[in-house]
Design goal:
The complex is a heterodimer of chains A (about 110) and B (about 120).
Chain A: E1 4-7, E2 10-12, E3 19-25, E4 38-43, E5 50-54, E6 58-59, E7 67-72, E8 75-80, E9 89-95, E10 102-103, E11 107-110
Parallel strand pairs in A: 2-11
Antiparallel strand pairs in A: 1-3, 3-8, 4-5, 4-9, 5-6, 7-8, 9-10, 9-11
Chain B: E1 3-7, E2 11-12, E3 18-25, E4 33-39, E5 45-51, E6 58-60, E7 68-73, E8 78-83, E9 92-100, E10 103-107, E11 111-115
Parallel strand pairs in B: 2-11
Antiparallel strand pairs in B: 1-3, 3-8, 4-5, 4-9, 5-6, 7-8, 9-10, 9-11
The chains are: A mainly beta (about 110), B mainly beta (about 120).
Chain lengths: ~110, ~120
């Protein structure tokens, strides 16, 4: 099974400053169709998860452009250019290239 | 408005059964693969199962294989999860989620299934 390892697990940040979360996969996430199905999700306190980024770097509809994704193969990064109060929550990377699909452990973003 | 609404989460004893439902609205349900994802209270996310648009492909996590059954009724815009032989470790919020190009783009609010004696 694919293991996704996120670092850090907790990230104290300052409003207006950047933040970065890493996600490393135990195997390449390149699908046989050539796409890489690595997503990032945000879960605010008491809320269900919300899709932020899909296929490494594509922002989902309505997601602010301060969120960006990058990476390839087994190493991926989510960056927030300037953290805002509403960004508090837990961030998960997720792979849907291989079965079973899997999630990282989550990174808690705290102001 | 695109929406998923789960229901059916209750308290059940170990070894018991439960059926979760998810009703979709605001999109053509029959066009999409659907998944169940669970989250134990205070813990991370775990993928549980998927079913393609016509039920032609069904997959399960090893931890639920042989005990859980996913199904759908496109005429009722509904997704189901039949959960048998429940264990305490199955206690979780269960979310249904819509799959668009292998990204989970719509999530329900979740329903809490508690397995406890």
């Amino acid at each position: 099974d694919i293991v996704l390892t996120q670092t850090p697990l907790s990230s104290p940040v300052t409003l207006g400053q950047p933040a970065s979360i890493s996600c490393r996969s135990s195997q390449s996430l390149v699908h046989s169709d050539g796409n890489t199905y690595l997503s990032w999700l945000q879960q605010r306190p008491g809320q269900p998860p919300r899709l932020l980024i899909y296929q490494i770097s594509n922002r989902f509809s309505g997601v602010p452009d301060r969120f960006s994704g990058s990476g390839a193969g087994t190493d991926f990064t989510l960056k927030i250019s300037r953290v805002e109060v509403e960004d508090v929550g837990v961030y998960y990377c997720m792979q849907a290239t291989h079965f079973p699909h899997s999630f990282g452990q989550g990174t808690r973003l705290e102001i | 408005e695109v929406q998923l609404v789960e229901s059916g989460g209750v308290v059940v004893q170990p070894g018991g059964s439960l059926r979760l439902s998810c009703v979709a609205s605001g999109f053509t349900f029959s066009d999409y693969t659907m998944h169940w994802v669970r989250q134990a209270p205070g813990k991370g996310l775990q993928w549980v199962s998927l079913i393609t648009w016509n039920g032609g492909v069904i997959k399960y996590a090893d931890s639920v294989k042989g005990r859980f059954t996913i199904s759908r009724d496109n005429g009722k815009n509904s997704l189901y999860l039949q959960m048998n032989s429940l264990r305490t470790e199955d206690t979780a919020f269960y979310y249904c989620t819509k799959d668009t190009s292998n990204a989970f783009d719509v999530w329900g609010q979740g329903t809490l299934a508690t397995v406890s004696s």
